[in-house]
Design a protein that fits this description.
By secondary structure, this protein is of the alpha+beta class. Helices cover 47% and strands 14% of the residues.
Amino acid sequence: MAATLKPYLNAVRTTLEAAMCLENFYSQRVERHNKPEVEIRSSKEVLFTPLEICRNEKEKVLIEGSINSLRMSISIKQADDIEKILCHKFMRFMMMRAENFFILRRKPIEGYDISFLITNYHTEQMYKHKLVDFVMEFMTEIDKEISEMKLCLNGRGRISAVEFLKNFN
């Protein structure tokens, strides 16, 4: 693990563990409705202060909490156009299968690549520390996945170019 990545991930982990204290909270406007307050934003008094943790300008995490839900948005490092395209396609692939990843949102927050929504129902049905571990594992593996896809793409491009240029000899 890179020297700058470990403190960044530790900061995200501790903040996520602290913000994961969610409880059942019915809507103050509609009786017996329980909607994620971080999404609805109907009552200012149940929203926590959003916290942004940055590793650099392009790699950051936004954690928005409320009394019954937590939204975590991640911006992934994209050094060049190829990485931007690969990241966009990979995130789109995952978001199309959001129902299989119970905490994944179908649409990310503006300015971020992917978002997770954790409600009090998720923390009641699943272990909190396992949810945090999943998100942290996702953050560590996503850079590796995109780098591997980029290397594979460059290799395939090189082979295609060699085969194409053989015809001109």
